[in-house]
């Protein structure tokens, strides 16, 4: 029987380790990709539209997430090499700052996705009035409000993470936002379906059954990617708060670094499914790279 | 994340040794966990979570696929390309704002026609007084090949035509056929010939 205080039993769930090289590569790829999106939008005057500003906001929050992980990695390496102590005051403050950056990134991602979905919703259902409803100025104001709220919440959560109360709203916000975004997109979908039906009933229309799948695939990819990348981490926070001593929970928490890598993968995938689907942005990229050569 | 450190603020156990991997910075302070007498597999939460997530995503996909079944029979296109119903290319242009130079191309002109109908139907919901004031000026605007950016006539229509930018999240193929990806709000049937377009627009606006 192994009843030892030093829990190094064979049956233990040891931390699943992600190699540093993988971590750095994934983080760097995420940062670079999102930086490219930002530069492309800034440089091309045609992309100064509310839709692209929201995509930029998503790119910024992804960049923050990857940046957080990179800094944390560097921090740990410095601790290992002895340049920083683990219990010092400065390190704790730095730690808190990095935690708030991470929460900022998560909240920013959620709200950016919500803004993108709302923008598309308005584009489709209020198309003619879209340019009056969603002016550039309003879009910037909305983004300012979102980021101020996220910054305030992240600082508050990081400072008050001792309390249970901070974890619960954080974990409720996540599925709530997901559900709301899903509702917006499903409504858009239903409209598209009804119009497809009407168009298909015309004598001169061409309907290919296979394209019916495209919208479903796109939407599933959107929400599926976000869910698969962020939900493991959110569950981790819940379990760490409520059952840290349960062996099942402890085994789940041992894959913490895999969850962190997933979040960085989300930073890489998001530009592909949002930004790069725009032909204008793609042509801006080509111009950028062709001029660079 | 070291917020977790604050949740379990134990310093009694230094489970971490220097020979351990660097990742164990402050994450091992959960204290000793007994792994004896486990009824289920120790990774059951991990497996259960991922299986549940996969099932949910697949379920969502099937629900969305069911929603998109149009139920219309497959029809072959025997029409020549000029008279071909150009909704598909309109659908494919979602991601691209209609810049003024594009309006001048013939292909886009046909798209603009369908767009115009789309705009017209929304116009019906707009203020009547506004429409009647600008009614006479419509003739200038019906020539899609020359629609100016700042005609002032139905500002929203013109904006709609020149800067319409529906997000391309459902379909980005240039020549994709119509599926549920069509996001027009116009009511069928949509007449393609320019003459009847002018007539109908006059009718609506007068």
TrEMBL record, chain A:
<keyword id="KW-0564">Palmitate</keyword>
<keyword id="KW-0832">Ubl conjugation</keyword>
<protein>
    <recommendedName>
        <fullName>Adrenocorticotropic hormone receptor</fullName>
    </recommendedName>
</protein>
<dbReference type="GO" id="GO:0004978">
    <property type="term" value="F:corticotropin receptor activity"/>
</dbReference>
<keyword id="KW-0472">Membrane</keyword>
<feature type="transmembrane region" description="Helical">
    <location>
        <begin position="140"/>
        <end position="162"/>
    </location>
</feature>
<dbReference type="InterPro" id="IPR017452">
    <property type="entry name" value="GPCR_Rhodpsn_7TM"/>
</dbReference>
<feature type="domain" description="G-protein coupled receptors family 1 profile">
    <location>
        <begin position="33"/>
        <end position="274"/>
    </location>
</feature>
<comment type="function">
    <text>Hormone receptor primarily expressed in adrenal cortex that plays a key role in regulating adrenocortical function. Upon corticotropin (ACTH) binding, facilitates the release of adrenal glucocorticoids, including cortisol and corticosterone. In addition, MC2R is required for fetal and neonatal adrenal gland development. Mechanistically, activates adenylate cyclase (cAMP), the MAPK cascade as well as the cAMP-dependent protein kinase A pathway leading to steroidogenic factor 1/NR5A1-mediated transcriptional activation.</text>
</comment>
<keyword id="KW-0812">Transmembrane</keyword>
<dbReference type="InterPro" id="IPR001168">
    <property type="entry name" value="ACTH_rcpt"/>
</dbReference>
<feature type="transmembrane region" description="Helical">
    <location>
        <begin position="255"/>
        <end position="276"/>
    </location>
</feature>
<feature type="transmembrane region" description="Helical">
    <location>
        <begin position="102"/>
        <end position="128"/>
    </location>
</feature>
<comment type="similarity">
    <text>Belongs to the G-protein coupled receptor 1 family.</text>
</comment>
<keyword id="KW-0675">Receptor</keyword>
<dbReference type="InterPro" id="IPR000276">
    <property type="entry name" value="GPCR_Rhodpsn"/>
</dbReference>
<feature type="transmembrane region" description="Helical">
    <location>
        <begin position="49"/>
        <end position="68"/>
    </location>
</feature>
<dbReference type="Pfam" id="PF00001">
    <property type="entry name" value="7tm_1"/>
</dbReference>
<keyword id="KW-1003">Cell membrane</keyword>
<keyword id="KW-0449">Lipoprotein</keyword>
<feature type="transmembrane region" description="Helical">
    <location>
        <begin position="213"/>
        <end position="235"/>
    </location>
</feature>
<comment type="subunit">
    <text>Homodimer. Interacts with corticotropin (ACTH). Interacts with MRAP; this interaction targets MC2R to the plasma membrane. Interacts with MRAP2; competing with MRAP for binding to MC2R and impairing the binding of corticotropin (ACTH).</text>
</comment>
UniProtKB/TrEMBL annotation, chain B:
<protein>
    <submittedName>
        <fullName>MRAP2 protein</fullName>
    </submittedName>
</protein>
<keyword id="KW-0472">Membrane</keyword>
<dbReference type="GO" id="GO:0005886">
    <property type="term" value="C:plasma membrane"/>
</dbReference>
<keyword id="KW-1003">Cell membrane</keyword>
<dbReference type="GO" id="GO:0030545">
    <property type="term" value="F:signaling receptor regulator activity"/>
</dbReference>
<feature type="transmembrane region" description="Helical">
    <location>
        <begin position="43"/>
        <end position="67"/>
    </location>
</feature>
<dbReference type="GO" id="GO:0031781">
    <property type="term" value="F:type 3 melanocortin receptor binding"/>
</dbReference>
<keyword id="KW-0675">Receptor</keyword>
<dbReference type="GO" id="GO:0031780">
    <property type="term" value="F:corticotropin hormone receptor binding"/>
</dbReference>
<dbReference type="GO" id="GO:0072659">
    <property type="term" value="P:protein localization to plasma membrane"/>
</dbReference>
<dbReference type="GO" id="GO:0070996">
    <property type="term" value="F:type 1 melanocortin receptor binding"/>
</dbReference>
<dbReference type="GO" id="GO:0106070">
    <property type="term" value="P:regulation of adenylate cyclase-activating G protein-coupled receptor signaling pathway"/>
</dbReference>
<keyword id="KW-0256">Endoplasmic reticulum</keyword>
<dbReference type="GO" id="GO:0031782">
    <property type="term" value="F:type 4 melanocortin receptor binding"/>
</dbReference>
<dbReference type="Pfam" id="PF15183">
    <property type="entry name" value="MRAP"/>
</dbReference>
<dbReference type="InterPro" id="IPR028111">
    <property type="entry name" value="MRAP"/>
</dbReference>
<dbReference type="GO" id="GO:0031783">
    <property type="term" value="F:type 5 melanocortin receptor binding"/>
</dbReference>
<comment type="similarity">
    <text>Belongs to the MRAP family.</text>
</comment>
<keyword id="KW-1133">Transmembrane helix</keyword>
<dbReference type="GO" id="GO:0005789">
    <property type="term" value="C:endoplasmic reticulum membrane"/>
</dbReference>
<keyword id="KW-0812">Transmembrane</keyword>
